[in-house]
Amino acid sequence: MSDIFDLFKKIQSKPAAAPAGPVEWLIVGLGNPGAKYDGTRHNVGFAALDQLASQLGIRVDQLKFKALCGDAVIDGKRVLLMKPSTFMNLSGQAVQEAAHFYKIPTDHILVFSDDISLPVGKLRIRRKGSAGGHNGLKNIIYLLGEDTFPRVRFGVGEKPHPDYDLADWVLGRFPEEDVKTLGQLLQNILPICRLILAGNIDKAMSDYN
Questions:
Q1: In sequence order, which ranges of the chain are alpha helices (DSSP H)?
Q2: Cβ-contact 72, 189 below 8 angstroms
Q3: pLDDT at 5
Q4: Does 42 qualify as catalytic in the annotation?
Q5: Which regions in the chain score pLDDT beneath 70?
Q6: Where are the domains of the chain?
Q7: Contact between 3 and 38 (Cβ < 8 Å)
């Protein structure tokens, strides 16, 4: 089976020009670091961020703020793309450090994560809200002290039966047909981000939820 990251990491060979001006937004993909977690359901946030970086023609390979980072510009706004290098339940450390350094308000932090309540091929955009049982979102909310950041949650499917261990499910890998479905869904990530960063989150929700 093709590794999910092999499908989504198609970084353009020509590097983008270095962005200028202050960082206005953080865009954070959630996942667990390390090769053993590549392509797992819990790492869909990483896959979404890699796809966004590919569409923007940048690399996410600078280690700072306890994360791998990449500098980008989306419609004139300078954006820091982030993949926390801590494990999922400590994701908020990277977000908190970067937000403090750049003085980013909470509503200018966009987070990508997985969602076991949605089928593969569906996503849910929200302006704010609870963690919904997701440990990465829970830690971000705890360390920021508020839940008023937008997020895009990508469906990874429900457990096949109630007795199936949740950790085994989210740390398992997608079957081939789901990889293809998810790859098609992630093609929408840049237009979604453009709407959210422009303040049109309601349109993003109506168009893509």
A1: 4-8, 44-56, 91-102, 135-144, 166-170, 176-186, 189-197, 201-208
A2: no
A3: 52
A4: yes
A5: 1-18, 161, 163
A6: 4-208
A7: yes
